[in-house]
Each structure stands twice: as C-alpha cells, then as structure tokens.
Amino acid sequence: MILSLALAELRTYHEQTMKQSLSERLAILSDAAKYDASCSSSGAGKRDSAGTKGLGSTGNGICHAYTPDGRCISLLKILLTNFCIYDCAYCINRSSSNVQRTRFTPDEVVWLTLEFYRRNYIEGLFLSSGIIRSPEDTMAQMVHVARELRQVHGFRGYIHLKTIPNASAEQLAEAGLYADRLSINVEMPTEQGLAAYAPEKKAGIIRHSMGEMRTRIDAGKERSLSGRRPPRFAPGGQSTQMIVGADTATDHDILASSSSLYSGYKLRRVYYSAFSPIPDASAILPVRPPPLLREHRLYQADWLYRFYGFQFSEITAAQPDGMLDLALDPKLAWALANRALFPVDLNRASREMLLRVPGLGVRSVNAIVTSRRHKHLRLEDLARLNVSLRKVKPFLHTTGWSPTRLTDQINLRQAFLPSPQQLSLF
Amino acid sequence: MAFGAIVEHDTSFSEWRPIARQCFLAGVPPEELEWRCASAEASLFDAPLTVPSPKPDAPNPILRSNCLALLKSILRHADQTRFDLAYRILWRAQSEPSLAAIPLDPDIARALRMVHQIRRDAHKMEAFLRFRDIGESQNGRRLFLAWFEPDHYILPTVAPFFTRRFTDMDWAILTPKGSITWNGEKCTLSRTACSKPDLSDSLEQLWQTYYMAIFNPARIKTKAMRSEMPRKYWKNLPETRLIPQMLAQAGTRVKAMETQQPQEAPYFHKRLQQRRTEKPEP
C-alpha cells in the first residue's frame, strides 16, 4: 500500500502554486534539479529531422553553455514538481525541507523544451520529479511529457527520463520507447548509507529496476531471427549517480560499487556528485562539503576504468585507507606504486602498457602507435603531441633517453607534488 | 619573374585545387612557389607573380584519400599560410605516400593542429549560436535569425547540422564570413560578409532565469568554464552577462546555507509521518 496525500490538501497546494509566474516556477524547479550531475546528451546514435516535419537531431552531444561552477548545460534539466513524499536526508526536496514547493503542468514542460530547443539553447530535456501521490502516478506524468514531445510535436532531440523505482512494467516499456536514456540514482555507495539517509528508498528495489532496464535495453538491440527490429528501448542506455562525502564511505567503497554497477548492469555512466551544501539542510548531514578535488579524482579513476583498461581494484590497491591520493592523479599514483613495470620502451611497448604511462592520454597513445609504424620515435617527437615530458620521462626509454636510476628514486613522488605555497597573511 | 599565385583570403579547396595542380604539373617545388593573399598589404619588394604553365608530359599528382581529406580540411582554416602548407604536403606525398598517416611529422602535426582548430570552431558554432525569434516568414512558418563570428571558413561544414536539426522553421545565420539561410526546402550559402543585426527575443529572460538557477554557488570553477567557453564568445551570448553578478553573490549564498539553523518541518511532512505510523507499509 502506497502512501497517498489527501486530495483536498493537494488541491489547495496546487491553487497556491499556479499563481506563481512561469519564470518563478522555472527558477524553483531548475534549482531543485541541479544536484543531478548528469547532463550527457550522447549515446543515442545519429538521428535528424531531414525530410520530416519534425524538429531536432541527436549526435555526439553538445554543451550549449557553461555556468561558473564549471558544469555544462546540455539539457533542460528540471523537475515536474519538487513536492515529494520521501524524506531523503541529502535532498533539497525532501518532505521535511522548507523549500518553496511548486510544479509545472506537462504542457508547460513541453512548451519550454521546444522553445529553448528552437533557439539552440539545449540538446533536449532531462526530466525528473519528486514523488507525488504514488510512484506510478509520477511516472505516468513524466511519460506523458515524453509522449507529447515525440508524437504530437515530432521532437527528435534528446530525452533523458529519471525512472521512478516501483513504476510499472508497462510504464517502463513506454518510457523506453520515447526516451534516449533512462536513469535511477543509487544515491549512496553502500546499502547501509542508503538505509540511513533515504529510509523510503530500498537498495534492492533500485537494483531490481536497473536489472530490468538492462534486460530491456539488451533486448532492444537484438533483431529477431527474421531480422525484425524489436521496439525501441532507450538506445542511450542507463546511467546513475552517487553522492560523495555525505556519509563515511571511502573511495574504495565507491569504486567497488561502480565496478559492480558497470559490470552487472552495463551502465553507460556512473556520476559522482560531491555532496554540496543545500539550503535548509538536514541536521544529520555534514556542514562542510568534501573537497571538490575528491570528486575529480573519482572521475579520473572512472576514466581509467572506462578508457585505459584499468580495474578499479588496481587503482585503490596501493592506498591503505581506501582513499585516493588527493595530491596526485590516480594514474601517476598507480605508476609510482608499480615501478617494477617501468620504464617501458616507447617504440616497442604494447598499446595497453603505453596507456598506463602517466602523462600519455588515449589520443597521444594512438598517435604514437600509428607513427611508430613509419619512423623510430624519440623523446622530442612526443613534445609535438603536447605531452608533458617532465611527467613521462621517468617512465619511458628510447634512443637518446634512458631514465636510468630516476625511475627507482625513493623521492620521485616529491618531484610530482605541487610546490608548497606560503599561506596568505591576511 | 617569380612563380606563384595571388588568391583571395577565403579561397576554398575547389578554387585552390586547379592552381595547385597547374603548378605541380609545371614541376615547381614548394620552395620556389609563393602564395600571396589578395587582401594582404602589398610591399615594395613584392615581385609580380605568374602561375607557371604545365609541362605536357608531367605525371598527374597522386594522393591517398586520407591525404586528400586532410588538404580539403585545412583549406577551411583562416591561416593565410595554409596554401603553402597544403602545396608542400601535396608535393611531399608523391615521394612519401603514407605521409598523412604520420601524426608526428612536423608538416602533418601542423596540419592536424589546424584540423583540430577548425573542428573546435565548428563545434563551438553549433553550441554557442543562438537563434532569435523574429516573427513569421512569408510562407507562414516561424522565422529565426542568428549572429555568430566564426574564426575559420566553416559555413559549409556546419550548414548540414543546422538544416537537419531546425527543419520545421525558417532561419538565417549571419556571420562576417557569409551567411546560411534555410526555408524548409533549400539551404543557401553566401560568402558576402554580413553586419551584426540588432536582435532581441523575449524568451531570453526565461533562459537567463534557468541559467542563474541551475548554477550551484557552492562550487566555483571559473577556469573550467572559461576553457570550454572562452571569453571571445561571451559578447554574443544572452546569458553570459549574468556571470559577474552570479559570482559576486555566490559567497553570501553559501555562507547563508552553512549558518542556517535547522528549521521546523512543514505541516504536510508531519501529516505524512503521522500517516506512516498509523498505516505502516507492508
């Protein structure tokens, strides 16, 4: 039995909120949505409106603006309503918060999306919502918005829907038909964390929904024996988000959780969101946020897993307290802990090994591998690729350069630390 | 009499190609050939240039497809030395057929850097161009106008993107390097320089509201913002004028959040909790 609010209460609340102007409500409902880090609009494949009466296209994903917090604006990220019957401690919209409540009608969301899109402000819509009345009811409204956009307005831009755990199977199937990406946030890296901070959410149910989405996404890609395509289901895959620094989970716990999410549910992305202070915060939250650098290091570790062939366990193996080194990036920290593998031969080392050399990115490794088919490479050639020679020198050897004892120097770590700065006197 | 050609600053690949071909068939090596821009200031020592006449028995130049694509691409760059670089690559590729596949070769490295700059310019144009609603066109469709200042000659590169995306409306993109117009059926490119129109759109206020609200004052990373959205684009974006104000208020907003005392929960939260205890979920 799901909790429902008395209709009379809802009605008075709706009457109040609809008096606010669209602009005021947009301010409240986008402010409430900003703690979701995901803004990616890629992965949906290529699609456009050429030869149709519609509007919009998808491709590699474009960031249309950047705010001073360094994040990009790719999608119109809003909530349908910030009214919520759940009381998750980390959330600005939890029922015990005194934040101003309001809502959009589905038509307003459709109108805003199309008008913003026509002016080239956005790639599409990222729609989420607080839980009103019941999960099914909320999900139905979100699916309604996506259906209107696709069927009535011929919108072919990007749609990302936040899935509500507990939504019905039919709703999920319909959401996947219109959305390019679906997501459910696991919120906390550990089950204990979720139980303590989000009493109404159940880790088991979240994982179950993710599993179901994975099955449907996989099925959506397979053709039948006669070559017929199955109905479309979220071609952009699914993603999730974890909050970093609100509870006591270590980086090791977080990455272990990512590892199981990537392998178990084939997620496209796991986002790490450093817990950020919110107005009217719950008393059980820490007052000070974790350093933003921690979130950055987690993303670097995530990149190493997705593009550099690292396993998460390797990255944290050398860190005794399970936290990533804040002073050095994870790849450099890993290389310093595994010096027996270095230096490697620039002209002969395998691609996999070159990817593990600190200072070499995927693009420079590709350039090295193609170039060395035609010519013998020296250290000076790397300078042309904008590679930091200072960083790669201890880990590579080639004609004209050998690090000799540099690789084994005990204080090599010192050479990479940022130089100490005098504290301000004021 | 020196060999060479005087070309317009916006010469495209298809215009450069016959001249380069003629010079190549005449057997003039890149060191002896001068490419001069018509718009560049003439100096006292400028020798008159002639395009050499081809030798009758000269072999045709041969290029691999990746090299041809590279030359096509770099001729969209605004750098006036691009003609010289393209001819040098054309010349060298005859004796080094796999030249374009060696990213560490100095000429190719420079060409690839130019390709990267062109691609970034095109990408930023697709991202930061803003359409403004200016009413209806003659055929009753909605009409939009945009102004953008690209660094390179990328209008042919980006035109398909805009026509395939904004299909159901009429629009024109004006730039100092030409314009693109679309009427639902036909895309027209022009190389006539346009001047900046005076435009306004009432919807920009809603967009600015969104831009302010989606910003998280507790995390300031202006360097990350500027590396992706350099200042040169700011003057044509409707939202960037808010940035100083947003940064100025950020400190006080965060301070207020940190010092805020826990407040009493709202009435409906208490009702919810009450009901949960009365009727616990199974």
Automatic annotation (TrEMBL), chain B:
Give start-end of the signal peptide: none
Q: What domain of life?
A: Bacteria
InterPro entries cross-referenced by the UniProt entry: DNA_repair_put, DUF4130
Q: What is this protein called?
A: DNA polymerase
Q: Where is the DUF4130 domain?
A: 81-239
Q: Specify where the region named Disordered lies, as residue ranges.
A: 256-282
* Source organism of this protein record: Acetobacter senegalensis
